[in-house]
Amino acid sequence: MFDSLPQIFAIVGAGLVTGLLFAFSNFVMRALADLPMEQGMRAMQLINERIINPVFVILFLGTPLACVLLVWQSIREIEQGGAMLTLAGAVLYLLGPFAITMTKNVPLNNQLAATDTSNADPVWIDYQRSWQFWNHVRTVAGTLAILFVSLGLVV
Q1: 61-65: long-range contacts at Cβ-Cβ below 8 A with a sequence spacing of 24 or more?
Q2: Rounded to an integer, what distance in angstroms lies between the CA atom of residue 36 and that of residue 117?
Q3: Which helix (H) or strand (E) holds 153?
Q4: Taken in order 141, 100, 8, 59, is the CA torsion positive or negative?
Q5: Are 105 and 130 in contact (CB under 8 A)?
Q6: 92-140 pLDDT, tens per residue?
Q7: pTM for this one?
Q8: What is the dihedral angle through the alpha carbons of 129, 100, 135, 20, rounded to the nearest 10 degrees?
Q9: What is the rounded CA–CA span in Å between residue 115 and residue 15?
């Protein structure tokens, strides 16, 4: 029998993380862009500092761990109903919200952290464009991952 506990954890974790990403795509980055550049940039620097907290870290690292378990479990039980959907969703989450964050958004955040707000113009404008593009991609990937893993429970 396909154990649903990792799926439930992955759905809840991915839902919370993807909801956070959605908020940034939908309104947070626009609000920061409406501020004077130095203030918007400093606010994002502070957000990037404050987001590293126990609750976020547990969700951010625990969800991909659950997805790795789901990949292994889905492959082992590939003939069972929902296994392919669960596999697709887990892989999509690993490649989307997790991998894009680590390879695209975190390096941009590190670059922003190392920049003095008095030099905001070129860095902040480029940061917003690149960061938002990758955030939109990981938001869509996370949303689809939640959908597929959820459907894997009911198919």
Answers
A1: 62/9, 62/13, 63/9, 63/10, 63/13, 63/14, 63/17, 63/93, 63/97, 63/98, 64/93, 64/94, 64/98
A2: 11
A3: helix 120-154
A4: negative
A5: no
A6: 999 999 999 999 999 999 999 999 988 888 899 999 999 999 999 999 9
A7: 0.94
A8: -150
A9: 32
- For 24-119, where are the alpha helices, taking DSSP H only? 29-34, 37-50, 54-76, 83-93, 99-100, 106-113
Distance CA 63, CA 5 (A): 12
pLDDT in tens, 1-35: 346 889 999 999 999 999 999 999 999 999 999 99
User: What tokens appear for 49 in the block?
Assistant: 């500092």
Helix (H, G, I), strand (E, B) or coil at 1: coil
The pLDDT assigned to 4 comes to 86
Is the distance from CB of 59 to CB of 17 less than 8 angstroms? Answer: yes
Q: How many CB atoms lie within 10 A of CB 9?
A: 18
Joined together, the tokens standing for residue 73 give 């479990």
pLDDT of 70-83, one tens digit each?
999 999 999 999 99
